[in-house]
C-alpha cells in the first residue's frame, strides 16, 4: 500500500521479537523487496519504544471512549479502531500541532462528519417488502467509521449485528448501553454543536432545506410518540414495557414487603429538571448550536438556504445552476481515481496526447532530469446544465524547470479581468450575443523547441519500465507553454483579419465596414461577441478546423463567474465559488455578519502570535482575493488580510471568519450591468492617510464605472510613507488617472471612445487645487512627478477633477473599515445586485 498510494519504498521494519513477523513467507517477501527487519531483544520493550508508546496512547483513548459510551467489553475492537481514526485527525504536539492526516496526505482533515461515539442513532431500515406503516428507522448504536466507505458503522440493537449505513439520524445525548449499565445515575448532557449544512446529491438548495425540515419533523413525531408510549407504560404497571425495542429508564419496580401493618414504601422521586431555558455560551454565538431538547437537531440555526434563492431565474437557468452546484471537481488523483468517469477521462487524455505525438518514451540521458506532473480535473457544461465532458488535464510541474536548460522565454499575456468586465458591459449595452468556446488541448498546439523530459503520468506507470516521456510538443504547466500557444493562436486569428488590441494583448478585434467582432482569450477559453452573427459562426468554423473546439453556446460560466442575462441587463456573480469557500471553511451554519470587517480594527499592528497552520490561512486568503473579481465590497478587508500571509495571528483568522460570515448573507451578490444607459466613464479616488499602524503607509483606493456598471476598482497600500494627507490623496489620484487613461484607450479600440473628459471625484480640496494649478511648496515638492502627470492629463482634456462630499465618496468602502450603516449606504451606490436574495 505504501508503494502504491504514496510512491515510496519501505526500507526497514522495527518490531518486537514476535514470531508472527518472522514467518518464512514474510522473510521471503522482505528479501525480495530489500526490506530490513529489525527486532528487539528478549524482554527489552524499550527498543521498540515508539510502537509501545502508541499502543498505550491507543488503549487509553479506547478506554475513555468505552467508559463514556458504556459499551460492553466485547466492543473493545470498535473502540480501538475509532480511537485510531480520531488520533490521526487530532493535532499532535510532536508534529508541530499538525494532524498526522495532514502530514501524510498534504491536506487538513474535515470534522463535519465526526460524531459522539456510542450514542443512539436511527439507521434507515433497508429491508424489502416493509409494511407501509412499519418503522423506517432501526435503533442502533454508533460504533465507528468504516474504511473506504462514506457512512457510519452502527450496531443494531435488535438484530445484534454491525453494518455500515449512510442514512442515519444521531441522538448524541443518549447512550443506550450507558443507560442500561448505569441506571439511576444521571449526568447533565453535553451541548451538541450542529455541523454545517452541506449540499449533496441532486437536490437544489430549496429542495434540500425542505427535505431536511420534513425529515426532522418525522423524527420529532416518532420520538414524541415513543415518549408518550413510555409515559403510558409507567402509568399502567401491568402494561408491557417493551416499546419498539427501546431501553426505558423507568423507576425500579416496587418490591413486596412482609405484612407488618405498615404502608408500602414509595420509590424515591427523582429531582425534576429545571424549566429555565438553556442557552449556549456567548463565545459560541457565531456558530449554529443547539442544546438537547431543542426543536430539531438536524436543522441549523442559520441554514444557508435562507440566504440563497432561485425564484428569479427561468427553469432552464435553474437547471444549469443546480447542475454546476451539484458536481464537485476532485483536487487530487487519489480522489478522482475512485470514480469511473474520471478514470475514463484520464485514459482519454493520455490517448489523445499520444495520438497527437506529444511525447515519446525514452530512457533518461545522463545529466538530464525529468520533471513531474499532476492531474487537474474540470467539468464542462452545456448551456442547459448537462455535462459536456469530464476533463482530466495533465499538467507538468513547470516550477521545477531550470531556466536556460529546458526553457527560455516565458512571457504570455493573459486577459485582464477588467477587460472581461468592460467587454461584457459593452456587449450588454449594444445588445450583442456572447458566445463561449473551449479549445481542446490548447497548449498541445504549440511547438516545443527545448529538450524537456517528464516522468510518466500518475496512474500509467508500468512496473519495471524506467523510461520517461520526452516532450515533443508543449504541455500545460510548462514555463514556455503559454507563450507557444499564444503565438499559434495569434497567427490563426491574424489570418482571419483580427488584430491584437494594444491595451490588452489577449483581446483581438475584427473591424470591417459595419462588422465588429471581438475575441477574448484566457488560456483555452475564448469569448466571442459582436454585431455580426454570421461572421461569428464563420470564426467558430475556422477555429474548429485549426484547433478542434467545443462550442459551449451563450456565455454563462466563465472563469468561475456565473453570467445571468435578461432583457434588463447582466449580473456577474461567483455564487458557486462563494458557497464552495463557505463549505470548505465549515461556516455554512454560522451566524451571518452585516459587514466584512470591524471598524477601528488593529489588524495591522505587529504581533508575535502566529497560528500553527499557516497554509490553510494563505489558501483561504488566496481564494478570497479571486472573489473580489465580482465583490468590491470585500476588497479592503481581503487586502488587509493579504498583508499578513507570512505570519498570520489568531486575530487575522477571526477576521477572515468574519468575512466568510458576511459572504453568507448574500452568496449570490454580484455586479449588475444594465442593458440601457450611457457608456461614459466616471471615477472616484480616495486614500486612508497613515492607516497602516505598523508602517504608517497610506491606502490607495479607486472605483471606476462605465455608465452605472462597475468595471474597475483597486485597494492597495502605497509604497512610501506620505508626509501629509494631501500627498496621500494625490498619489491615489495619480494611480486613478493612470487607470483612466488605459480604459479610455481600450474603449476607443472597442468602438466606444470617450469624447468628454472623465470626471474624477476627490474629497480633498488641496489635492484638487494642486491638480489644476502649478502649486509647489515644501510639503509637495517630492511628489512633483505625480503633479506634472496629473496636471498634464487635466490640461489635455482626458480627466476633470471634481469635488465630492466625504459622506458620498464611494471609494471609502475600498480604503477603510466602515460601520454597518455607512457601509450599506455606499454599497447601494456601487452597481451591486443580488439575484439570489430571498424574498
From TrEMBL:
Pfam families: RVT_2, SH3_retrovirus. GO terms for molecular function: nucleic acid binding. One of its GO terms (biological process) is DNA integration. Residues 1-108 form the Integrase catalytic domain. Residues 225-236 have a biased composition (Low complexity). It comes from Linum trigynum. This is Integrase catalytic domain-containing protein. PROSITE patterns: INTEGRASE. It comes from the Eukaryota. Residues 225-281 are annotated as: Disordered.
